[in-house]
# Entry
Amino acid sequence: MIEKLMGHLPPKTASYIEKPENRRYYTGFTSSNGFLFVTSEKAIFYTDFRYITAAEKFVDKRIEVRLLDRNRFEIIKELVTCFGIETLLIEENYISYASAIRLEKAISPCRIQEEGDEYTVLFRQVKTANEIEKIRKAQVIADRGFDFLCKLIVERKTELSEKEAAAKLEFFMKENGAEDSAFSVIAAFGENSAIPHAVPTDRKIKKGDALLFDYGAKVDGYCSDITRTVFFEEASEKQKHIYDIVLSAQKKALNAVSAGKTGKEIDAVARDFISSFGFGTLFGHSLGHSVGLDIHESPNFSPSETDKIRENNVITVEPGIYIEGEFGVRIEDLVVVGVDGCEDLTSSKKELMILS
# Structure
């Protein structure tokens, strides 16, 4: 990974990397503190006393490990001078404005260039076989989580609250091999399912509720993502109709996914289908986002994504319809983009389910 970055850096240019996910990607090591300084000839990882021994053992051997024992701005100034750096690339979507100003003052006359993400985040878009395998393992855990949820609903029935469902699901995933949840579990019942990113409450299940669950597991730092919507005891004709539209839209989009198309093209497949039934305004989010060390990466399936999707991008496909005050339906799978289609990593049942 680090050689790819070093090979793309121009002479007299260095990349300054702080974001934990980027540090992990290039070093193979996880820590809460540290930074990478990378030139075309040299890569150095600084971390503090808590991590230095482990870092010396586990960091990619092509990267020199040094102790972060003083102000990082002083260290970077010395590095810039030592390596004759004239341009320092920073992660413009991560570093704070205050830090950027301090850094700029410290390294003058070397200039800061806000194009660091082009050399860090963009390299992470196309996943390696090893990365895909970690995501696959995380998605297997998430799929098992859906089976667990279904059994929990049948067991607890109207005593089950959103908070309880979310908490027990998170514990289940950790018991079954996840190092953590990929993000805060969404468990939304009834009218709350019409809120795309609802926060679990004390609301309990009622007969006729749509029950929406959006969650993921994390394995070796890599995330998975899945959404399923089920119904409790009964589903109205309106609920069945909306569910059928969302499911059909997702299937059409899944069939359309392949490398070389733009995110906008793929998004339009599902969006146009939903709009043809008059529900276009009730599908307010993008069709999907890339997943990796971050739960939200790029590229996306969205109306504004003009970049072409590439082979081995890992992206969600998650159309939804949300009727305020009533219910919402979202169905989400995670796919690996291929040349002539995609591999769906998600195995959980998605035909309409009524649990009781």
Notes: The mean pLDDT is 96. Residues 90 and 116 are 5 Å apart (CA to CA). The first strand starts at residue 13 and ends at 17. The radius of gyration is 23 Å.
